[in-house]
Design the sequence.
């Protein structure tokens, strides 16, 4: 077996700008206790950068408490769209340091980093001193004591905008709009606080050197992965959703609820995930493309009904926004460890679709595609997003429109007896929906005949198992099955949200003169052995990159595909992200194993 | 209910050719008869009716009708039916269940279906036993009933479905006996016509594992008083009766569930405006 590596890494890859060159991105982290406003601060700064024409990415790392826990806003402002964080943060702003030790390992710093700290705000986490980062003072406590209406996060956002040389007038305008409904006194206090923050650090010239923005005037969106999933669902034709609240998937549902109503659909909050999935199976049986969204614990509860939808051939889409597992795990943080349950969780032989989006814009595309696949194949489709993608807010170029609309083969003019599960050349049988005369049949969870009548016969069982396998295997999935970029004998293979980090690593390696191929399957089930063999053609060294403790993706690849003898795995559980520099370092070794 | 009328409404039109798997003498045969009679009386076309069920002897009923059917997994029939009715309010949706499927594994959905009040008719065939798995105690089994799985009895207080339904907000509550299919059909007709969530508990003997239930035909009797629209009164009545009062107990007037509607848009591009920078 190839070497399996894990554990925290010391990052040595040079990623920041050379001393004189301009930086293509700058990374900023705000930390504070829950309720201190770190996330609001991050959003304001991202919006200010976007207004000036930069792109950016804002992710969050929070504890489970609504108030009094810990929260970090992780922001990367960039000239071009970015899909992951860099290897270290250039600027870390502590609104306060309470509980900051809980995620200090998620915020990598280096000797060039700058930390903004209140001498009265508690001790910065140990990583600050260990990194050798420069610390500059911002006396938040002192300022808020003198001016009780000022909030520390507003002072911090002004300071950060000043240090990054963002336009203070733009920031002021954003603060004005954001707090307008709270009244003029609050707006005035927040503006004064931000101004004071800027003034307090005005004498520092840190020279982050971010290159000038160039996206002003282009069509851009500020959108989260969860919102993009919702939009993709409606564009794909979803008109009914039923769901139970769960972190980090609730935003998909909260976005969909009013939007579905606008397009003549609806969303129901169910009593649990068992009800959610069975409700959408009912909705889809009635002819309406239907979806639910959940996270690991909810997916576990839905597994039995996924088998029902597979056996009864009822199309549904299940969005699973992955979080740390097993059990309740880490609800607020990302992991890629639901691959096994998504692909193999259903009892019996139950072929179904599993797809994974690779970026925030790809959440839109892949969800729309999932609706198309589910409806075309009359099968459940699981979409594996994760907390990183789902709750990240990004400024992106407006994604190109795609034409996928969920359309199932309907039986309309029927001559009795109707064979709902008729064996056809492509394995897909035209589906009657209630109301169509002569189409009456019973959607059946038992093994059944072509007419849908319960059967325990070996031949009926075999015939329907074959049918349900064949309809997936014979389908033309097209180029969307995977992202394949570049050529050469070296390749990195990954999936889902780590595709962005892998792509950035490949770009860094290209600058260092190493050609590395990127392979990222968007379609995880059914496996595509012929296409994967072509993708791996000529690859002699392969690095598997994934965020799971058990190397689930590596084992999945081994189960379905032939991999080169020199294959290694870079894997670790959430919530620590795998950064581009770590991937690069693996390729700078003489050999993997 | 806006379903089109069937031209010739005979009960036989609603019966499929599939032979039931039930034991000879099972009460569920008569429930099937009550279904087809009720559908004929309602005059709805078979393709406009959906019969949704879970798992168990009672849940085999959809395939025995000539309607659209859904035979899902254990305990989830109410969820499937709610989803169907919400997207297809034009259909008549009848849910069939049993005391194990409906009150044990599906108990939570029962509570919330009553609360949600989707316009469904929920018929539970109660024989106080798991028949299909060969005689284990269900939530309505008497506490001292001896079985192989729980020797000496469960010692647990039986579940009271009618009181639970009333307390949870069901809009129509009735009890019927499978041995009186004409009367049961009449109650189902009323239940379908009543808006919102209608619950009909049908005492349906299991002659194989509960031969003692053959005596039910002598114990049942028509309720001495008329239905009420006062849930508290109805609950008090049903908690103090002998468990064999038949008839409509409660007719409520809560408006049925209607999905929220929003400001209609014609162009999906409007949905992306909120994201534009």
Sequence:
């Amino acid at each position: 077996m190839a070497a399996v590596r894990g554990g925290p890494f010391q990052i040595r890859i040079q990623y920041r700008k050379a001393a004189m060159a301009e930086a293509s991105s700058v990374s900023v982290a705000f930390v504070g206790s829950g309720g201190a406003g770190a996330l609001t601060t991050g959003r304001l700064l991202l919006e200010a950068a976007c207004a000036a024409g930069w792109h950016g990415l804002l992710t969050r790392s929070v504890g489970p408490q609504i108030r009094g826990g810990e929260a970090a806003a992780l922001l990367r402002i960039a000239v071009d769209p970015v899909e992951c964080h860099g290897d270290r943060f250039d600027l870390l702003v502590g609104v306060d340091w309470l509980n900051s030790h809980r995620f200090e390992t998620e915020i990598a710093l280096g000797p060039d980093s700058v930390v903004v700290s209140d001498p009265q705000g508690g001790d910065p986490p140990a990583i600050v001193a260990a990194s050798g980062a420069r610390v500059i003072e911002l006396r938040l406590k002192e300022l808020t004591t003198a001016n009780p209406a000022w909030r520390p996060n507003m002072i911090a956002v002004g300071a950060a905008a000043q240090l990054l040389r963002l336009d203070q007038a733009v920031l002021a305008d954003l603060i004005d709009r954001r707090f307008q409904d709270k009244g003029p006194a609050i707006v005035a206090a927040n503006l004064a606080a931000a101004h004071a923050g800027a003034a307090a650090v005005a004498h520092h010239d840190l020279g982050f050197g971010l290159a000038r923005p160039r996206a002003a005037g282009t069509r851009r969106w500020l959108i989260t992965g969860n919102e993009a999933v919702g939009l993709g669902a409606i564009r794909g034709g979803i008109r009914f959703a039923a769901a139970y609240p769960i972190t980090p998937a609730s935003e998909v549902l909260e976005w969909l609820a009013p939007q579905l109503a606008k397009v003549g659909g609806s969303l129901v909050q169910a009593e649990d995930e068992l009800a959610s999935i069975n409700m959408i199976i009912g909705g889809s049986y009635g002819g309406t493309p239907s979806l639910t969204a959940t996270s690991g614990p909810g997916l576990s509860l839905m597994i039995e009904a996924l088998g029902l939808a597979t056996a009864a051939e009822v199309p549904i889409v299940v969005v699973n926004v992955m979080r740390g597992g097993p059990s309740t795990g880490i609800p607020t943080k990302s992991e890629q460890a639901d691959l096994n349950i998504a692909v193999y969780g259903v009892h019996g032989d139950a072929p179904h679709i599993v797809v994974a989006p690779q970026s925030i814009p790809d959440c839109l595309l892949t969800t729309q595609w999932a609706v198309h696949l589910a409806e075309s194949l009359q099968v459940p489709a699981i979409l594996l997003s994760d907390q990183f993608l789902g709750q990240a807010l990004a400024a992106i170029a407006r994604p190109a429109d795609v034409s996928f609309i969920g359309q199932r083969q309907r039986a309309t003019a029927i001559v009795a007896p109707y064979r709902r599960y008729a064996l056809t050349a492509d394995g897909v049988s035209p589906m009657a929906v209630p109301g169509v005369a002569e189409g009456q049949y019973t959607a059946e969870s038992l093994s059944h005949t072509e007419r849908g009548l319960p059967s325990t016969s070996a031949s009926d069982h075999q015939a329907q198992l074959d049918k349900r396998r064949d309809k997936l295997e014979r389908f033309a999935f097209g180029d969307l099955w995977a992202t394949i970029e570049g050529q050469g004998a070296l390749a990195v293979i990954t999936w889902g949200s780590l595709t962005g980090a892998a792509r950035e690593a490949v770009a860094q390696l290209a600058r260092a003169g190493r050609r590395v191929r990127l392979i990222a399957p968007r379609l995880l089930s059914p496996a595509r052995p012929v296409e994967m063999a072509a993708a791996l053609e000529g690859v002699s060294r392969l690095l598997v990159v994934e965020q799971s403790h058990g190397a689930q993706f590596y084992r999945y690849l081994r189960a379905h595909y032939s991999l080169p003898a020199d294959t290694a795995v870079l894997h670790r559980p959430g919530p620590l992200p795998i950064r581009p520099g770590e991937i690069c370092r693996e390729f700078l070794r003489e050999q993997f194993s | 209910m806006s379903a089109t009328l069937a031209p010739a409404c005979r009960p036989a039109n609603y019966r499929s050719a599939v032979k039931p798997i039930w034991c000879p003498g099972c009460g569920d045969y008569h429930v099937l008869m009550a279904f087809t009679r009720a559908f004929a009386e309602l005059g709805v076309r078979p393709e406009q009716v959906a019969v949704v069920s879970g798992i168990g002897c009672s849940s085999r009923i959809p395939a025995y009708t000539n309607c659209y059917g859904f035979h899902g997994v254990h305990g989830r029939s109410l969820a499937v039916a709610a989803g169907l009715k919400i997207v297809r309010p034009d259909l008549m949706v009848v849910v069939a269940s049993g005391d194990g499927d409906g009150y044990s594994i599906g108990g939570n959905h029962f509570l919330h279906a009553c609360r949600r009040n989707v316009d469904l008719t929920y018929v539970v065939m109660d024989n106080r036993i798991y028949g299909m798995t060969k005689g284990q105690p269900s939530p309505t089994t008497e506490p001292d009933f001896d079985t192989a799985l729980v020797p000496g009895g469960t010692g647990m207080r039986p579940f009271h479905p009618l009181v639970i339904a009333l307390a949870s907000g069901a809009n129509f509550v009735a009890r019927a006996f499978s041995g009186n299919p004409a009367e049961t059909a009449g109650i189902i007709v009323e239940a379908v016509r009543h808006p919102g969530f209608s619950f009909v508990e049908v005492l349906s003997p299991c002659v194989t594992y509960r031969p003692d239930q053959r005596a039910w035909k002598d114990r049942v009797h028509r309720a001495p008083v008329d239905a009420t629209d006062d849930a508290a009164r109805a609950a008090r009545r049903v908690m103090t009766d002998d468990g064999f009062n038949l008839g409509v107990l409660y007719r409520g007037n809560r408006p049925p569930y209607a999905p929220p509607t929003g400001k209609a848009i014609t162009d999906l591009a409007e949905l992306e405006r909120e994201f534009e920078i």
Notes: The first strand of chain A starts at residue 4 and ends at 5. Residues 360-377 of chain A form the longest helix (18 residues). Confidence is low (pLDDT under 50) at residues 1-20 of chain A.
